[in-house]
Amino acid sequence: MKKSKTKLCDLPDVLLSSIIEKLETQSNALRLRASCRKFQPLIPPLPNTLLERQSLNIPLPFASSSSSDNNHFHYSLIESKVFAIRPRSEDASASATTCWFIKVKESNSGQVRLMDPLSRFGFENASDKLKLPKCLNMLDYEVKELAQDYELEVVDKDENKVDETCFLIEKVVVSEDFEIMAMHDSGKVSVWRKGDINWTSIRLDLGNNCMENSFEDIIYYKKKFYVTNRCGVTLYVDCKTLTVMFAATPDPLRGLSDGLNYLVKSDKHLYLLVKCWIRMYLCRDNKPYLKLHPTRFQLLKLDEENNMWVDFDLISENRVFFVGEGCCFSVGVGEFAGTLKRNCVYFSDSAFANSDDAYPGWTSAVFYFDDYEVWRFSKFPSHSRIFWPPPAWIELQD
């Protein structure tokens, strides 16, 4: 018996409502609204996050209320998004192709810019230099939003960007209600909420051996801000009340490798990735200098019940991890069969920068948990092609 196909627009309202409730991102909701007129009344108009960002009057952080600069300058919140793009499933000619991972930065003026997926390196005039299409209609492809990366730019009262070297902002994370946590000035952490006149500094007393007020990473997870220091001691901060609570510490029997800590989330879990390196003493112009070369990663998972970072069966997780300059994220391998290899970490580090012209992924490498080896992207096209060059099914300009 020949099976009949049900069109998406013909699905019952109850089933559609269930699908709508599971939409994770604004881009997914917009795509569903655009696919059928019937869906438009079912999916309420989404808030314009660009307009909301533009309306935020974020004071210069970490300055006193008497500072005259606060009257002339403020911060503008800038958002970038990482997407995975692939042909529509009905396109049989491209059914076996890989996904293309891109990061797009949107300024508060509405202009967009192509960025390196794992760093904050931008590509000026990318459509000409890199032969990219000047216009990319996301409705022509299957698109999945993977992560967001936020930055704070100093602007004047007319929203013109000005020199921001006076503050070193290392990372910014944002809640759904635009509460903002910023890591700045070599590991300090502060929070700003809409309506606050000043930023609130997060100070913790964890003992002298753990550099209590020097943090290495921050993340927004399950409606809370999480912070971790070099010892792996992790706390969470309530976005509304700024109450600080203990979240986890490494298993004392297992310990934590000496390296740089990153917090990475999935739909269900929070992970701690430690990038370890060797110290290489080199010489340039007869002057010695130290270079840190990444060699491996240690991976732990948060045991929320016991407040501890623990080892786990990585094979059963079947995930791939991405460690970037502004954001870290993970994806299930099953979502990207034929594109990503499981049990590995894609990351960016200046030690792997290619001397050729810059292109997306030019500072990236991959680490395999199976054999504990690190490889430069440029040596393995099967890996680097997720960032560059654009796949054949992307229509390039002449």
UniProtKB/TrEMBL annotation:
It comes from the Eukaryota. It holds the Pfam family Beta-prop_KIB1-4. Residues 5-54 form the F-box domain. InterPro entries: F-box_dom (IPR001810), KIB1-4_b-propeller (IPR005174), SCF_F-box_domain (IPR051304). This is F-box domain-containing protein.
